[in-house]
Design goal:
By secondary structure, this protein is mainly beta. It has one helix at residues 105-113, and strands at residues 6-11, 19-25, 28-34, 40-44, 58-60, 63-65, 72-74, 90-91, 93-96, 99-103. It binds FE2/S2 (inorganic) cluster.
Length: 114
């Protein structure tokens, strides 16, 4: 079982509502989104359809529309919505002292399941 590996990805104030910030960890692109209601979510920044950059999509509530073919991906589960199927990995997010931390330990767990 993998343990949590929290990394600091930047200041909370740098992620406005309905926007995302992207970073790369161990060659894996990760997007941190702030939904319109202020909640933060982190996903591997690859659409489950053909790998589109979800961080460049448009946010609707707690979902993002992929910029390539408009699949709708849940920020909460990483799953495609509607008739589409597939899932991208979700990562835990925490805010401490105004900094955003993402648990990249889940990347090891996702790789182990693949
Ligand atoms: S790559 Fe995202 S919808 Fe096709």
């Amino acid at each position: 079982m993998s343990r949590a590996i929290w990394i600091d990805v930047g200041a909370e104030a740098e992620i406005p509502a309905r926007a995302a910030r992207r970073f790369v960890f161990a060659e894996t692109p990760i997007a941190v989104f702030r939904a319109g209601d202020g909640m933060l979510f982190a996903l591997v920044d690859r659409c489950p359809h053909k790998g589109g950059p979800l961080s460049e999509g448009i946010l609707h509530g707690r979902a993002v529309a992929c910029p390539l073919h408009n699949w709708i991906i849940s920020l909460e589960t990483g799953a495609a919505q509607g008739a589409d199927s597939g899932c991208t990995t979700t990562l835990a997010v925490a805010v401490r002292c105004g900094r955003v931390f993402v648990d990249v330990g889940a990347l090891d767990r996702a790789a182990a399941r693949a």
